[in-house]
Amino acid sequence: MHDDCIFCKIANHVIESDYVYEDDLVCAFRDMNPAAPTHVLVVPKEHYETIVDGVPAQTLAAMTHAIDEVAKAEGISESGFRVISNAGPDADQVVKHLHFHVLGGRFLGEGLLAE
Ligand code: 5GP
Ligand code: ZN
């Protein structure tokens, strides 16, 4: 756990948040500045900076499972959703702890870069 990392604190309940799903390896909580009716962040409890920071396969599988659980809980499995993970400056990654944005609940646009 990194003491200066907000997502380490939320994922390990040092700071509480609005959780949607949790297991031993990951948790999912609502983004504080939602861009869609469903905007949930899936994060590992261990600290990794990005998706390519040596994340164990078991953790990646747990993140995929969490996305599925979030989609089911939010009722967007059939309507669809978008998963985004920003890595580095050109992607405007603000929080340097790996996270998947899970967005849904409305039409998100046609293009890859649509909001
Ligand atoms: P990034 O640009 O790093 O991919 O996005 C970080 C996201 O984390 C943003 O959408 C922002 O609203 C969200 N966020 C940042 N700090 C907090 C926080 O303390 N609590 C919650 N729930 N979301 C946060
Ligand atoms: Zn962290």
List the helices and strands and how they pair.
Blueprint: H1 6-11, E1 19-22, E2 26-30, E3 38-44, H2 57-74, E4 81-84, E5 100-104
Antiparallel strand pairs: 1-2, 2-3, 3-5, 4-5
The site of zinc ion (ZN) has 6 residues, from helix 1.
State the gist of this model.
With 115 residues, the chain is α+β, with helices and mostly antiparallel strands. The protein has helices at 6-11, 57-74, and strands at residues 19-22, 26-30, 38-44, 81-84, 100-104. A hairpin with a 3-residue loop joins strand 1 and strand 2.
What's the CATH class, please? Alpha Beta
What hetero molecules are bound to the protein chains? guanosine-5'-monophosphate, zinc ion
Q: What is the number of strand segments?
A: 5
Report the β-strand fraction as a percent range.
15-25%
**How much helix, percentage-wise, in residues?**
10-25%
Amino- and carboxy-terminal Cα gap:
32 Å
Mean pLDDT across all residues, rounded?
96
CATH architecture, please?
2-Layer Sandwich
Which descriptor suits the 3D outline?
A: globular
Regions with pLDDT < 50 over 5+ consecutive residues?
A: none
Order of helices and strands: HEEEHEE
User: CATH homologous superfamily - what is it?
Assistant: HIT-like
Taking Cα atoms only, what radius of gyration do you get, to the nearest Å?
14 Å
Strand order of the largest sheet: 1-2-3-5-4
Q: Which structural category do the helix and sheet elements fall into?
A: alpha+beta
Number of domains: 1
